[in-house]
Amino acid sequence: MDITFDLETTSLVISGLINLILVVVIGIRRNKTKDTIFFLLFSISVLGWVLSRLLFEITTDVTLFRSAQLLYFCATYIPLFLLLFIESFPRKEHSYSRGKLTLILTPAIIASILCWIPGAVIQAIYTDLDGHKAITFGWAYLFYFFYIISYFLLGIIKMITKHRKAEGVERNQLEIVFLSILVSSSVGMFANLILPTLGSFEFFWVGPLFSVFMVLTIGYAIVRYQLFETKLITTEFMTFFLWALILIRTIYSGSTQDRIINGLLFLASVIIGLYLIRSVVNEIFQREKIETLAKDLEKANEHLQELDQQKSEFVSLASHQLRGPLTAIKGYASMLLDNDFGEIKGEVRDAVDKVYKSTQDLVVVVGDYLDVSRIEQGRMQYDMSDFDMRDLVATIVTELRPNIERAKLTMDFDFDTEGNFTVHGDQGKIKQVIGNIVDNAIKYCPSGGIHIWVAHRPENKVLVTISDTGVGIHPDVLPRLFEKFTRAPDASKTNIMGTGLGLYVARKMIEAHNGKIWAESPGVGKGSSFFIELALA
Predict the structure, then answer these.
(1) DSSP string, 181-249
(2) With the CA atoms of 327, 331, 332 and 334 taken in that order, what torsion angle do they form, in degrees rounded to the nearest 10?
(3) How far apart are CA 438 and CA 393, in angstroms?
(4) Could you give phi then psi for residue 217, rounded to 5 degrees?
(5) Which terminus of the chain is less hemmed in, N or C, by CB atoms within 10 Å?
């Protein structure tokens, strides 16, 4: 085999290297869609066609006929995979029926088999008057010719149809990719199919060279519309470009010593380049994995939000349905205790009293759930007005004093005697918050007393403090005390009806007034203090 690296041979070597880059770039992608797979097969067919054309150019011995058969065999599958790629691009899964797929594959398989039958597609090889290798075609070449032409024309028609229907970025992708394939394929058919049919082999090497145009154009599409990983493309392009330069330098070395040095340099660049590409691929794979996990997490979060919304709606509906019967039970129990249906005494009165208290506790629990559902659904309504905070707290103390005395606790109420205590807010909601905190102090204070005072704070603010000598709060519970369903580990020993929602509702209501609420405690068994801070009107 006598190899002469003239302009034609060198251009074929460069074309082969660049097409190899395209095949490697697409082949190492981990998540391949159907259009990517078909484009990879199309690129492999083009690469095989270019390399076999190079082999045909440099071969002069008995393998020349086989290299020509390989050349036309590789060219057989170019229009087939191009057509399948056009059918599925861009990123659309296209499924073929068994009959349609058989109809598409059969002509290609027949044409590829005919390429290997001596005298069918290729009859003989000779050298023309200009010194170019020429081919005499056999009896099956007409079938081969019309197969190639018809598949390319069918692909062009599908390109035009898809382009008319596409919009936006997809339309731009179609324009760039299809234009590159159209130009390179048209030149290839003209130089390697039509002209040889007319007996001209002068431009037989031009078709593979124009495959470079396809690679460069798609490279632009990669950068412009990010069809593939730009970082990986850049790394591979620079690596393969360096390989090509060193390889060409090795081929054209003037002495054996230079060829050995350049050959070793080429080998070292290949090893380093492969490690570099591998590291970039691993980095991209990890990033894609993280992005996939992030998308899955986002979907799971959306699903959880939907479930939470459904839960809130269910709780709201259930709370409304429970409120009516509980109110009726509480009302009739109160009437019985007031002797409206006749005097009741002894154990019967104790039983009715327990029913009344339990129902009252249930009403509070249902109210908490209803408030939570309203807050989470954004349906909590606030009736804002100006009112005196000192007078409101005094009213709460007066209403709850019987409960405090019944629990055998002391009550102290202090306030600043001077200054304005008018705030702007929903008087009913603020009363509910303060009342719940005082009620909690009663429940969690076995002995001792409760101290409430109202005072001015800097920057025109008023502070309500409710302190007790009760069970206190554990330091681990204190930071999350105002979250949903948060209770002290031993809270159920003191109050079995607690839900851990009252303070969450209180925080949300105070925050809706642009205020602050927090708690402090020296520790378990040392009491606790709750603070509510609101701006003066």
Answers:
(1) HHHHHHHHHIIIIIHHHTT--TTTTHHHHHHHHHHHHHHHHHHHH-SS-HHHHHHHHHHHHHHHHHHHH
(2) 140
(3) 10
(4) -65, -45
(5) N
- Would you say 453 and 519 are in contact if contact means Cβ atoms under 8 Å apart? no
Residue range 167-220, pLDDT digits in tens:
766 677 677 777 777 777 778 778 777 888 877 777 766 766 676 676 666 655
pLDDT in tens, 27-81: 665 556 677 778 778 878 888 888 888 777 777 766 778 888 888 888 888 888 8
How many other C-beta atoms can be found within 10 angstroms of the C-beta atom of residue 489?
10
Q: What pLDDT does 532 receive?
A: 93
CA–CA dist 76, 58 (Å, integer): 22
> Which amino acid is residue 382, in one-letter code?
Y
At 412, the amino acid letter reads D
Other Cβ atoms less than 10 A from the Cβ of 230: the count is 12
Among candidate residues 180, 15, 208, 211, the one with its CA nearest the CA of residue 89: 180
Please give the backbone phi and psi of residue 237, each rounded to the nearest 5 degrees, phi first.
-60, -45
Terminal CA-CA length for the chain = 100
Q: Where are the alpha helices (DSSP H) in 89-137?
A: 98-115
Q: Say how far apart CA 443 and CA 279 lie, in whole Å.
A: 64
Position 423 scores a pLDDT of 92
What stretch of H or E contains 311? helix 256-337
Query: Is the pLDDT at 426 greater than 70, yes or no?
Result: yes
The conformation of residue 478, written as its DSSP 8-state character, comes to: G
Mean pLDDT in residue range 112-133: 82
**Alpha-carbon distance 122 to 140, whole Å?**
8
CA-based R_g, the chain, Å: 43
Question: How far apart are alpha carbons 174 and 165 in whole angstroms?
Answer: 11
Distance CA 167, CA 240 (A): 35
Q: Which tens digits make up the pLDDT trace of 239-253?
A: 766 766 777 677 666
pLDDT of residue 312: 66
d(C-alpha 103, C-alpha 121), whole Å = 22
Confidence tier at 496 by pLDDT (50, 70, 90): very low
Give kind and range of the element (H or E) at residue 86.
helix 64-88
Delineate the domains of the chain, giving CATH numbers in brackets.
7-228 (1.20.1070.10), 300-376 (1.10.287), 384-535 (3.30.565.10)
Q: What does the mean pLDDT of the chain come to?
A: 78
pLDDT digits (tens, 9 = 90+) for 209-238: 676 676 666 655 655 555 555 565 566 667
Establish whether the linkage from the previous residue to 522 is cis, with ω within 30° of 0: no
Note whether 119 and 87 are within 8 A (CB).
no
Q: Given CA atoms 421, 425, 427, 433 in this order, what sign does their dihedral have?
A: negative
Check pLDDT > 90 for residue 464: yes
DSSP structural state of residue 506: H
